[in-house]
Amino acid sequence: MAGTDDNRDYSNRPETSIEPDRSTRGKTELADERTELANHRTLLANERTFSAWIRTGIALIGGGLTVAELLDGANDVLPKIIGIILIIMGAAVCVMALWRYNSVSRILGKKGVRVTPKLVTFILVGGLLLVTLLVLVFILIE
């Protein structure tokens, strides 16, 4: 019945926790270990988020190229404009992903977490922006 008090005695239940025995380790050691694990989970979440935003940016760039090239049947200007807008949006998403990733990585780096070097992420996003620029030039030249 919802809302009733539970008066059962749970003091005789066996211990089912997966926690290490607290008598052998100090509370501060456990807290430090949990904090370190939480920082590593945050790092992995930051990398997954960066990956998702880069994937979204690439999809926008590909969608823009598709719209600009495949829907350009009668030399209409509208598909090219829509395609260029999608490509620019994809490049902007990649830049924002880099900014966000580096912001969170900087915070984690100050806490002593080993993060991916900035050069790697800058090369990745820089390469994507170079490809985006080449796609835009390809569309505009046609």
Summarize the structure.
The protein is mainly α and 142 residues long. It is built from three helices and no strands.
Descriptive account of the structure:
The protein is mostly helical and 142 residues long. It has one domain (27-141). Helix content is 72%, strand content 0%. The chain contains 3 helices and no strands. The longest helix has 44 residues, at 27-70. The mean pLDDT is 82.
Looking at this protein, list some descriptive labels.
142 residues; 3 helices; elongated; single chain; mainly alpha
Q: Tell me the strand percentage band.
A: under 5%
Strands, total number: 0
Number of domains: 1
Percent of residues in helices: over 70%
Mean pLDDT over all positions: 82
Number of helices: 3
Low-confidence stretches: none
Question: Which class do the helix and strand fractions yield?
Answer: mainly alpha
User: How would you sum up the major sheet?
Assistant: none
N- and C-termini, Cα separation: 72 Å
Describe the global form: elongated
- Rg calc: 26 Å
List SSEs in N-to-C order.
HHH
